[in-house]
UniProtKB/TrEMBL annotation:
Main localization of the protein described in the UniProt heading: cytoplasm
UniProt cross-references to InterPro entries, sorted A to Z: Elong-fact-P_C, NA-bd_OB-fold, Rib_uL2_dom2, Transl_elong_fac_P/YeiP, Transl_elong_KOW-like, Transl_elong_P/YeiP_cen, Transl_elong_P/YeiP_CS, Transl_elongation_fac_P
UniProt keywords, alphabetically: Cytoplasm, Elongation factor, Protein biosynthesis
Assigned protein family: Belongs to the elongation factor P family.
A Gene Ontology cellular-component term: cytosol
Protein's cellular compartments: Cytoplasm
Function: Involved in peptide bond synthesis. Stimulates efficient translation and peptide-bond synthesis on native or reconstituted 70S ribosomes in vitro. Probably functions indirectly by altering the affinity of the ribosome for aminoacyl-tRNA, thus increasing their reactivity as acceptors for peptidyl transferase.
Translation elongation factor P/YeiP central domain sequence ranges: 67-121
GO molecular-function terms, A-Z: translation elongation factor activity
Elongation factor P C-terminal domain ranges (all copies): 129-184
Record's protein name: Elongation factor P
Metabolic or biological pathway: Protein biosynthesis; polypeptide chain elongation
Record gene name: efp
Organism encoding this protein: Paenibacillus oryzisoli
GO biological process terms, semicolon-separated: peptide biosynthetic process
């Protein structure tokens, strides 16, 4: 058990038989009434984000998430196969479990599979990935306003807003949290 007073961003907890990670929290001490902790939690089973208020000092279960290094091998229909890099065991995850992550997943990429008491919750991607531009809008001559952007489609099918100097074939670093362009990847 852990007290809500000890919340930290990234902490994983169990509340009412669901597994959450703490995205944000705020200790509130009103002038009148008892103190409480307002928190923003992400459900690791379904990806939903909820806001929840706890009484100060309330205890919740601590969830110990296991992260195993695995390599993405291939897709077969709606199933995506991963291999444990140490034991060579293979597991499959469904399209439903990987909706957002599929925008960044490339064959032979190493990732971490999150599990809780044997139940696979999903995958942890690196903070950014390098993806090749396969299609991009043409730059319009004279459109040089500061911060001008155009649309580019990368090898995984994700559309990214990029600066005008990006061309087809360029490799970009893309943030896996929000899918935004970070920089050109260094070769």
């Amino acid at each position: 058990m852990i007290s809500v007073n000890d919340f930290k961003t990234g902490l994983t907890i169990e509340v009412e038989h669901d597994i959450f990670t703490v995205l944000d929290f705020q200790h509130v001490k009103p002038g009148k009434g008892a103190a409480f902790v307002r928190s923003k939690l992400k459900n690791l089973r379904n990806g939903n984000t909820v806001e929840r208020t706890f009484r100060a000092g309330e205890n919740v279960g601590r969830a110990h998430i296991e992260n195993r290094e695995m390599q993405y091998l291939y897709a077969a229909g709606d199933d995506y196969t991963f291999m444990d890099t140490e034991t060579y065991d293979q597991i499959s995850l469904s399209h439903e479990q990987l909706k957002w992550e599929l925008n960044f997943l490339k064959e032979n990429m190493n990732i971490k599979i999150m599990s809780y008491q044997g139940e696979i919750l999903g995958i942890n991607l690196p903070k950014s990935v390098d993806l090749k531009v396969v299609e991009t809008d043409a730059s319009v001559k004279g459109n040089t306003a500061q911060g001008a952007l155009k649309n580019a489609k990368v090898e995984t099918g994700l559309n990214v807003m990029v600066p005008l100097f990006i061309n087809e074939g360029d490799v970009l670093s893309v943030d896996t949290d929000d899918g935004k362009y970070l920089s050109r990847a260094s070769n």
